[in-house]
Amino acid sequence: MEFDLTIFATRFLGIFIEATPFLLLGTLASGLIEAFVNKDDIARMVPHNPVLATIMGGMLGFMFPVCECGVVPVTRRLYKKGLPLSTGIAFLLAAPVMNPVVVASTYAAFGAGPVLYGRYIMTALVAIGVGLIFTVQNRPQRILRPQAIFVPITGGSEAVMPAESERMELLPGIKKALLLAHEEFFEMGRYLIFGSLLAAAMGTLALDKEIETLASNPVNSVFVMQASAFILSVCSTVDAFLALAFANTFTTGSILSFLVFGPMVDIKSTMMFLGVFKRRVVFYLIALPFLLTALLSIAINLNIRL
After folding, report:
1. Of 12, 15, 42, 291, which has the fewest Cβ atoms less than 10 A away?
2. Phi and psi dihedrals of 144, rounded to 5?
3. What integer pLDDT is reported at residue 215 of this predicted model?
4. Can you tell me the distance from the alpha carbon of 273 to that of 58, in angstroms, rounded to the nearest whole number?
5. Which residue range forms the structural domain that includes residue 116?
6. C-alpha distance from residue 267 to each of 19, 79, 124, 140, 227 (Å)
């Protein structure tokens, strides 16, 4: 196994340059939320029923169209405004797919068919399913890092209320939003750089020919494509075109696992998760989507083979 420095540099620059504009978009959205959205707006928007609130979180990506790089700062800012924990997790996992840009790119790559529909159905099931697991936790200080500011979920006595904020006038609000976006861009950017370096290194060492021998197996192909999605760390706005290159080789279920799991969790987003959640929670945010996506994808493969 050889390490090619030229390939590594190309992969790193490709991942980093592709991701940076979306991180910038996410931090700008985060700053605008801080300046123009207060906790009362969040309280009116989110249903009181935790199940309905989590389902809504899975659909919020159409309101905040950000990819996996931009969704992390937006989620953290929404937590600071009082967004329930489970709603935020469903949003965090679903938004990179549940947005108009990704709908368009997936349609352009695969057309209206099982891959397009399967991607959105599976994403909703996995993201909302993981979010519902976290509805049992009413003490967000056990989940969130201090930077995310603890918020009450369902009356936890130890939770800390978010600071009150008034909606700002337009020009002062934009100035504050830009300042916050600047600060958050550099804070979250260090996670993006480290994640991009790690993703480029892992992608350089990948053995493509050995991987392709597993492509037709209904079980192994799923795990290979999930691992590839995690390692390659391709932005969700363009990953459908990369998946299309594998479509004639890999099983349908494995292609869906690539398109569902990759936007939820990859190397660079894992690093960024560490700026919001405690380490053990980040492990669950990797393991739960991985297992749920694998089960659904393998089930699809077995049904197709029958």
Report:
1. 291
2. -90, 150
3. 75
4. 18
5. 5-305
6. 12, 23, 22, 24, 10
**CB burial of residue 220 (10 Å; 0-12, 13-18, 19+):** middle
Q: Which amino acid is at 239?
A: D
Question: Average pLDDT of 4-12?
Answer: 84
pLDDT the model gives residue 155:
39
The overall average pLDDT reported for the chain is 82
Alpha carbon distance 251, 222 (integer Å): 8
> Does 198 or 172 have the greater pLDDT score?
172
Q: Which residue, 81, 59, 71, is CA-closest to 29?
A: 71
Alpha helices in the chain (DSSP H): 5-36, 39-45, 50-59, 71-80, 85-94, 100-110, 114-133, 170-205, 208-212, 220-232, 239-246, 252-264, 267-273, 279-305
Q: At 287, is the secondary structure helix, strand, or coil?
A: helix
Q: What are the residues whose beta carbons fall under 8 Å from the beta carbon of 232, sequence distance 6 or more?
A: 199, 203, 242, 262, 266
Is the model's pLDDT at 59 over the cut of 80?
yes
> How many domains are there within the chain?
1
Kindly report, residue by residue over 228-251, the tens digit of the pLDDT: 889 888 778 778 877 887 787 789
What pLDDT is recorded for position 166? 58
Q: Is 155 left (phi over 0), alpha (psi -120 to 50) or beta?
A: left
- Which two structure tokens, joined as six digits, stand for 93? 């996992």
3-state secondary structure 177-214: HHHHHHHHHHHHHHHHHHHHHHHHHHHHHCCHHHHHCC
Segment 211-232, tens digit of pLDDT: 666 777 899 999 989 998 898 8
CB-CB contact of 257 with 225 (8 Å): yes
